[in-house]
Write a structure and sequence with these properties.
The protein is of the alpha/beta class. The chain has helices at residues 4-7, 10-22, 37-45, 62-74, 88-96, 110-120, 143-149, 169-173, 185-191, 201-217, 228-236, 246-261; strands at residues 27-32, 50-54, 78-82, 101-104, 155-160, 180-183, 221-224, 241-245.
């Protein structure tokens, strides 16, 4: 069957992830900015639900991304990629490499959101290009079945992190094909004139506005966290998907150990 080599039961993994995401169940995972399949494996061995390979701020090239996606697949985790932008080249290449979904930064208008969906999904929902690639098991198997069902297994998450998105939230989130909204508090705080201060009242008000718009659109919300207390607080607010950062956690553990030994 076409896709069996990469859907590993990847269909089941991605379908289950998408179902749990839409149901706002607790989903925990990591932004992984270092180009390392071993780091993905560690998260998998620890039992996390997803890995987001960060190609917006991280240096990983496409071949490394593909191997990191393989590592996620081996451990039954959803393998997502934060792409650098909404271009065809950025989106299509990582999906062809076998990403279960994409996280797209700086979606500040409905036009950008429509472009994202067009580039992520095959016809009739979108206009994603057809290719013999890892995602399609290199053409082995039933091509018609693959193209008829692949959209069901592709997760499309848009990041809202710009001041200019706030007046048009309902327009953005009304675009069909979006699966979830990711609130990026770091860039949002900078865009609102408070860089490094995501707890500023105006930033928190914007976060509340984004979450309310997502609820109106019937979409789940995802965001970043640093601690278990963050997860509990966010879950209480109806946010199930929480993403940690491997670099921040490693640096924090190193600093804590150094301080303890000083």
């Amino acid at each position: 069957m076409l896709g069996c080599a990469t859907s590993r039961d990847s269909k089941k993994v991605t379908q289950d992830f998408k179902r749990r995401l839409r149901a706002a169940e607790r989903l925990l995972g990591f932004f992984i900015g270092t180009p390392s399949a071993a780091t993905v494996e560690i998260a998998g061995f620890c039992g996390y639900d997803f890995a987001i390979i960060d190609t917006e701020h991280g240096p990983a090239g496409l071949e490394t991304v593909e191997n990191m996606l393989r590592a996620a697949a081996m451990h039954g985790m959803a393998g997502l990629v934060r792409v650098p932008d909404s271009s065809v080249a950025s989106i299509q290449r990582v999906l062809d490499a076998g990403a279960d979904g994409i996280l797209v930064p700086h979606v500040a208008s409905a036009a950008i959101a429509r472009d994202v969906v067009d580039r992520a999904l095959f016809t009739p929902q979108g206009r994603r290009g057809v290719a013999l690639a890892r995602s399609s098991a290199y053409g082995v198997g039933d091509a018609k079945a693959y193209y008829a069902t692949r959209n069901q297994h592709t997760v499309v998450i848009v990041m809202i992190e710009d001041a200019e998105a706030l007046p048009v939230l309902d327009e953005i989130l009304a675009v069909p094909g979006i699966d979830a909204v990711f609130i990026g508090p770091g860039d949002l705080s900078a865009s609102l004139g408070h860089p490094g201060a995501p707890e500023h009242p105006s930033v928190q008000a914007a976060v509340s506005d984004i979450a309310a718009a997502a609820r109106r659109a019937g979409l789940p919300v995802a965001t970043v966290g640093r601690t278990a207390a963050d997860v509990r607080r966010l879950q209480a607010a109806g946010i199930g998907m929480v993403c940690f950062n491997t670099s921040a956690m490693l640096a924090g553990a190193m600093l804590a150990l150094k301080a303890e030994l000083s």
